[in-house]
Every structure is written in structure tokens, then in C-alpha cells.
Write a structure and sequence with these properties.
- By secondary structure, this protein is α+β, with helices and mostly antiparallel strands.
- The chain contains seven helices and eight strands, in the order αααββαβββααβββα.
- The protein has a six-stranded antiparallel beta sheet, sandwiched between helices. Strands 1-2 form a two-stranded antiparallel ribbon.
- The termini are far apart.
Length: 251
């Protein structure tokens, strides 16, 4: 299907979903009339929405209503908003302390997604953008999360070289993850960008599961190898305080 047709179908499907949102239940005829489409078109558009549980159709009446999938999306969205709100104070405090860019990310295997960024306006700006993705194996935030994931998370992970410093051998990555768990923080030593170093630590939730990571990033001229050792405990401390605010059990 041409891209233009796919885009039009997506807009129509979203219009159907949005219209159902305001009603307790709509028949196929009512829904088709409301969105100005034929019943056969509405049936075609709603099929994948029902399959994804974004819509439900009553087996007896045939009426459409929102499905459980919308609740899951809403909960995921709220959880992300809560994480940003909880982490905001510590992220700003960390930036003020180290005078480097601070990132907050969540895990979306095989990537991390940047959901917040606090910059030191006097420094060179980092290229990262909120909403952008990074590879888990080549970023400090990714490795900080990956270190606490089950072994299956490594299976089939494409260890693509991003720079000449990227870890591309599974055994070397496993050894690195073991080291991260032991010291409590991860380092990206020019593995994702050739002139950037990053130090990150994992964030745990109330179930003691890693749900995110916080990091400090900067040019190698500012974040030297010696400074990495100073930043590690500071970033780990910020991550620990965020984790406690998320309800992580104390040990």
C-alpha cells in the first residue's frame, strides 16, 4: 500500500478511536455515520484496533467501546510523566553540581528513549533530543539498564559498531555489564559519539526492577578519564535518591 494511503488509513482509524472515546458504546452503523465512512471501511479500520485491544466489540450487541489496551497506554504514559516529575529535582541538582548535561532515559529494547534533558547552557550543547533513541550496547544509559536485565536481553542483540570504541563482542559486553553491577554505574567512553563521554546509573522502581537511567554527558575535553571516576559516585547517588522516591525497597 502506498505511503499516502497508509497515512490516510491511520488518520481515519485514529478518528474512529477518538469518536468511540466519548461514548459508552456505539453500533457499527452509528460509528460509520459519525465518522462519515462506509460500514465496510469502518470494519476494516477497526479490525487491527480490536486485535491490539484498543477497541472492544460486544459479542452480543456488536457495539464498540474502548479496550483494555488504551488503559495500558494511559498507564504507561502516566508512569513516564511520573518518572520525569520524580527525577526532575535530582536531575537539576546533578547538573548544577557537575555543570554538564544530564539525561533521563527509559528502556525500549533494543534501545533507550530519552525522556528528559537538563543542559548547562554555558557548555557545548549535546546532540540528543527528547524522544530520540539510542542503542543500549553503545550508551552508558543503555548499559546501566542492560546490566540488570535477564540474560535473554542479550540474545540476538545486534552489537553494531557506532564508533571505533563501541563494544561489539558479546563476551566483552557481558564482562562490562558485570563490572557495571559491581561498581554501580556505567561509562560510555566515546562508544556512541567519538568526542563524548557519558556516565550513567540505573534507576529502580518499587519492585526493585530497573526502569530507567540517569546520566551525565560531555565532551572528552571536559569529562576526562580521571573525572569519570569522580562523576560515577555522584551519578549513582542521584539515581539512588530517585529510586527511593519511586519506592525502591531499602536494603
Amino acid at each position: 500500500m502506498p505511503e499516502r494511503n497508509q497515512s490516510a488509513s491511520l488518520r481515519r482509524a485514529l478518528a474512529v478511536l477518538d469518536h468511540v472515546r466519548g461514548h459508552a458504546g456505539l453500533s457499527l452503523t452509528q460509528l460509520a455515520e459519525a465518522v462519515g465512512l462506509s460500514k465496510s471501511t469502518v470494519l476494516r479500520l477497526t479490525a487491527p484496533l480490536v486485535e491490539a485491544r484498543l477497541l472492544e466489540r460486544d459479542r452480543r450487541t456488536g457495539a464498540y467501546r474502548l479496550g483494555h489496551g488504551t488503559l495500558q497506554l494511559g498507564q504507561a504514559y502516566l508512569a513516564t510523566l511520573d518518572l520525569r516529575a520524580v527525577a526532575a529535582e535530582e536531575s537539576h541538582r546533578l547538573m548544577s553540581e557537575v555543570r554538564e548535561t544530564v539525561h533521563l532515559v527509559v528502556y525500549d529494547h533494543p534501545h533507550v528513549v530519552y525522556i528528559d534533558k537538563v543542559e548547562n547552557e554555558t557548555n557545548v550543547r549535546m546532540a540528543s533530543r527528547i524522544g530520540s533513541r539510542g542503542p543500549v550496547h553503545a550508551t552508558a544509559v543503555g548499559k546501566a539498564i542492560l546490566a540488570w536485565q535477564p540474560e535473554e536481553a542479550l540474545a540476538g542483540l545486534a552489537l553494531e559498531p557506532i564508533t571505533k570504541h563501541t563494544i561489539t563482542h558479546p563476551d566483552r559486553l557481558r564482562a562490562e555489564l558485570t563490572h557495571i553491577r559491581r561498581r554501580g554505574y556505567a561509562v560510555d567512553d566515546r562508544e556512541n559519539e567519538p568526542e563524548v563521554r557519558c556516565v550513567a546509573a540505573p534507576i529502580f522502581n518499587h519492585n526493585d526492577a530497573v526502569v530507567a537511567a540517569v546520566s551525565v554527558s560531555g565532551l572528552t575535553s571536559r569529562i576526562t578519564a580521571a573525572r569519570v571516576r569522580e562523576l560515577g559516585p555522584l551519578v549513582a547517588g542521584a539515581a539512588s535518591r530517585i529510586s527511593r522516591k519511586l519506592g525502591r525497597p531499602t536494603t
